Amino acid sequence: APDYIRAIMAYQPGKPISELAREMGIPEESIVKLASNENPLGMSARARDAAIAAIGEVSRYPDGGAFALKKALCERFGVKPEQLVIGNGSNDILELASQAFLAPGLSAVYSRHAFAVYPLATNARGARGIEVAAKNFGHDLDAMAAAIEPQTRVVFIANPNNPTGTFVPGAELEAFLAKVPRHVLVVLDEAYTEYLAPEQRYDSIAWLARFPNLLVSRTFSKAYGLAGLRVGYGIAHPEVADLMNRVRQPFNVSSVALAAAEAALGDDEFLARSAELNRRGMTQLVAAFRELGLEWIPSAGNFVTFKVGDAIGVNQALLRQGVIVRPIAAYGMPHWLRVSIGLPEENARFIEALRQALA
Ligand code: PMP
Asked: Which residue, of 217, 239, 266, is where some domain finishes?
């Protein structure tokens, strides 16, 4: 393998709940997992029905052109099918962007404390990653624009960002896009966009008319509750989408996933419930951090990152009480933990366990 492949550090997934339960000697049902920014409501009933119906057809290959899901996305967002790329999770969209636009000798710009897949996708192409210092744990767009060099072909921006939950207002993103050279693809990763408060929302898809070098990446894994099925989508200029579709595996998304995603997209009621539950959970967690005297980073996502000092010790103490959160040392934040927002009772279990862990 090339040296740039050998140098890659694999993404570290969490342990399965069953394995953790065994290690900790506690029943699996009593475990509260708030580690992967999943939807605590599960999936919408409509998506479940569609997935179950689609199971009957799995002897056939899926529709590699994702005709029905693309049609639904086009109606929803007022775009054309040739502007769309459907991915096996939005990780696939990030990966396809790097496959289409990066190579040895080229570079990608991303922020420190940004999503772990950006350096992975960059390094896997043998391209160079330019990590820009963060500003208040979030993206410093001025510094990122300044970091673009002649070899740069991709800039990754997560808005909101994982693991910090930081958010850049739409007007600042627009100003950034206006500064970036047209041969540099700006990957705007909006995995958590459905959780934004009404006053934070902005219309990135409308920007495509002015910025043909923009790729908006979204997912069905978070607010739509389909993380295990793996569906994401990219919206871009037709030429960008075409290049990405050339390197995409012909049947990268399963038929069950396509059917569930299409149904989920139409379930606005479920989306609204997810966002509302998240808003309440955020209030609940923030109140607890305040009461416990802990520092936290205000988050626009479905998770929040808080400072405990001894993150390894506190994480262990939480685990012993059956509560799984995410240590983020790998993101350069060794004193912080990230907790996903759960159901009210799950949040309460986490808060109580945290109180014990800190006592
Ligand atoms: N982008 C960000 C910022 C994320 O946090 C995640 C999931 N952790 C993803 C993309 C990828 O999610 P998925 O592949 O499930 O769509």
From this structure: 266
